[in-house]
Predict the 3D structure of the following.
Amino acid sequence: MKEANPLVDLSKAFAVEIINLCDNIKAKAALVNQLIRSGTSIGANIREAQYAHGKNDFIAKLEIALKECYETEYWLELLFETKSIDETTFKDLQQKAGAIRRMLIASCKTAKENR
């Protein structure tokens, strides 16, 4: 039986929301492409970290996911400020990205302390 992992589950659900959002944005193709890449990369790197080759590789994958999370927040800000997404959508996704970011920061800190 597969063990529950809130970070994996949350990042995957977030990626699905990003994909659905980007499917609905008609303009700003360059921003949408960047958002799709960074928003789905978070979960992919978290998933890769589960099969890391040692603690340093695990930390490196989580740190990449963290960078992608920050980048995703940036693209969301740009889409909101250019009125490509509404405030409700923006705040909801920013809150979810923030939750993932905080979990990643805590996970990286714990992994580094237990090296």
